[in-house]
Amino acid sequence: MKKMDQIIADYNSIGFKSFMSEDEKWFFDTHGYIVIKNVLSKKNANYLIDKFEEWRSMPKKDLPAPMTISPNKNVFQNIHYVEKLYHDLIINNRIMKYVSSVLLHNPRLMFTSVIRLKKNEKKKKNKFTKFIQDGNVLLHRDTNGYNYPFESFINPLIGYQCINGIIHSGYVNVSVTLVDVPKDHGIGLIPGSHKSNFNTPQIESEDPYSEYIQSFKLSAGDAIVFVPNLLHTTRKWKMDYSRYTVFNRYVFGKYVDEGYQGHTFKKYKKNLSDELYEMEQKNIHQDKLIVKRLKKLYLK
Amino acid sequence: MKLNDFEKWYFDLKGYFVIKNAVSKKDVSKMRQIANSWFDSSDKLPELVQKDFSQATAKFLYNFHYVEKVFENLVLNKKILRFINGIQKNNTRVYDVVLAKSTKKDFETKLHGGFEGGFQEPNQQFVAANNDLFASFVNVGVSLVDISDNSGFTCLPGSHKGNFKIPKDINLYDGSPTVVNVPIESGDAIVYTPLLRHGARKWTENFPKYTVFMRFIYAKQFHSSHSDRWLPYEKYKKNISQELYELESRDQGQRVKLETFLKNNGIF
After folding, report:
1. Percentage of chain B surpassing pLDDT 90?
2. How far apart are CA A243 and CA A186, in angstroms?
3. Is residue B175 exposed (0-12), middle (13-18) or buried (19+ Cβ within 10 Å)?
4. Min distance A83 CA to chain B CA atoms (Å)
5. Which of A23, A150, A165 sits opposite B163 (nearest CB)?
6. A15 to each of A9, A91, A285, A295, B81, how far by Cα in Å?
7. Which of chain A's residues have a Cβ under 8 Å away from the Cβ of B161?
8. What are the φ/ψ torsions at residue A218 (nearest 5 degrees)?
9. What is the ipTM, given to two decimal places?
10. Band (B2; pLDDT cuts 50, 70, 90)
11. Which of B128, B166, B177 sits opposite A214 (nearest CB)?
12. What pLDDT score does A11 carry?
């Protein structure tokens, strides 16, 4: 017998150990999301709301760098460089348990933002307003700017897949609410739609939201981790108080930047812990610091 | 006839589909009346009707569609056959037809089924390819009564495509999105893959619940288990139409009358 000259690949996932329990894997695989209660205390959530309003009242030129504010003053980004609570929230153990597992223990923070939404707030027309109808964000999947011919294609950069008991999605979204969210407000999604084999048809029903959409009664400080291939929406905000939401996206560490501007700032590196700054960087050929820490915590 | 885009999307997403008003209220009423009389005087059942009253969840009758035309028509129902034929690629076979009666004295049907990853059993597979889907085994339940809220057919949507062991602590009375109780009115049909984890909540009304269950398999396949009950009932084949007899028979290229029936009704 002669042996073929060939490369025998050293597959990274052999021996992969998720931090999620078997029941959690079943839930996440079946529904495409998981709710984590109380990742922030009510007191800290209120503190972040106060900070939001404090920054909002400041002249733009006085905002601490590298934080940025949107033209309508409702979205701040790079907040973790200036506020420790945001920094700690991004690397929160209970959140990163799922994020790291779904990203095959190669997580990278793509961006973080905090968003304010007020009832009946008039919005100036911009490139995003076409995605809102009657106050509801149109039901959608997140994309990286390219739609494959069929939705069931697994986009190698962001799509969901589960092979041999290992769950992977190239993007993971995390939404943390800073206020109490009544049911039928906030994030709504269609459980299981991340594994659809067909294009989404026009959904028609007497009451499509109650028939198809899963929404959540949340307390300030609760988080939802979900895969962006899940059909989701943001429901119209009808409460008298404003909605404040922290929205973080994590990506697989080998993700190519393909057009989006990096959200890491070498100049302000000292504002972050080594662990978080490293997590903002593309893949390194060893476990990142955060993964080493999580392995000690969850793989005892 | 193929399923439309919405039907495919929904069945793939949930593992079941409800065909509203599959059977007319008039036929439902007639079937319920007959069912009442059979179960009320079960010692005087027509000779070929078999019974099993030993189960804790319901009492069952078999072969009744060989006796009453309205039940034969139900098995050949066009709305149901169109859907099943769409799933089983124009080659379906009905091999089991059951009339079930549940009362408030009966127990719930515990959750069973559910796919937990790995290889699929060919006799019960669910697959999607080429913008279409296929399930080699499909169950249908037609209710002859209005089902009150929080009772009757209950399932774990999406569990037909699971990749992990189903948690043991999930029960029939948990809430959505994990466990869903499907609202049904008389004459509606639920079509589902047995890969879906499903059961039935306890019946709590004073009137009995009557359901006709039908099991369909891909007509070229063999049975995965043996039973004397599997159709057709050769001894009484003259009691039913040739197209129904063929629908109950394995496809060996001989089901000409059935094909004509399906074509004439826009199902093939």
Report:
1. 89
2. 8
3. exposed
4. 36
5. A165
6. 14, 24, 17, 13, 47
7. 192, 195
8. -120, 155
9. 0.93
10. confident
11. B177
12. 67
Global pTM value: 0.94
Residues of A in contact with B166 (CB under 8 A): 26
Contacts of A165 in chain B (CB under 8 A): 117, 163-164
Measured CA to CA, the distance from residue B249 to residue A270 in angstroms comes to 76
Length of chain A, in residues: 300
Coil, strand or helix at B73:
helix
Listed as ranges, residues in chain A with pLDDT below 70 are: 11-14, 123, 127-128, 258-262
User: ∠ CA(A158), CA(B6), CA(B94), 5° rounding?
Assistant: 115
User: In this predicted structure, what is the pLDDT of residue A212?
Assistant: 95
Are B155 and A189 in contact, with CB atoms under 8 Å apart? no
Decide: A218 and A246 in contact? Cβ < 8 Å.
Answer: no
Encode A158-187: b = buried (16+ Cβ within 10 Å), e = exposed. bbbebeeebbbbbbbbbbbbbbbbeeebbb
With contact defined as beta carbons under 8 Å apart, do B204 and B105 qualify? Answer: no
d(CA A113, CA A67): 10
Interface of A with B (CB under 8 A): 22-23, 25-27, 29-31, 150, 152, 162, 165, 167, 190-193, 195-203, 214
Closest residue on chain A to B14 (Cα): A192
Cβ contact, residue pair A26, B5, below 8 Å: no
Residue B212's SS3 state is strand
pLDDT on residue A261: 66
